[in-house]
Give the backbone structure.
Amino acid sequence: MDFLRTYQVRFPRGVTFGLGTSERTGEIARGYGAKKALIVTDRTFGPVGIIEKISQFLTRAGVEPAVYDGVITEPTTQQVQEGIEIYKKKSCDLLIGLGGGSCIDAAKAIAVLATSGGRIQDYEGRGKVQKPKAPLIAIPTTAGTGSEVSWSCVITDTERKVKFIVHSPQIIPRRLSRTP
């Protein structure tokens, strides 16, 4: 890194972190006016009880939880499509990305489709997301990609067999929680 250069770091509007912060997930969701939240995650969190805990926090706040746990490492266009179908079928109005960067990236992509429609491939590249995404809470469980504070999501196109990026300030999660 050249310390003589100027660098800029951009963060989302709200970052909430610290012990027990995830217990406020329901309260944060209600702050968005949410009635039904889709938790986008992978199957590793079910057996250890994290999905159940987040669901309980939502339920206590009057927000009905739904779960899509089909995300695997390197989220795919197919997983994004499965997630948006559940989001619509369950009439959700908020997303929660629970897990590592893959889960959060998948949730970002679903949030884009929830308000903009089409296929996530339509938004490949920079600046193609014009509308605000559906409300999204990111609950990172790992340190690594920084997806919870970034302008991008990386998705693998299962048809073309390539990874692509969706890059827009519209997809930054507005508020974050840390894991329990």
Remarks:
- DSSP finds five helices and eight strands in the chain.
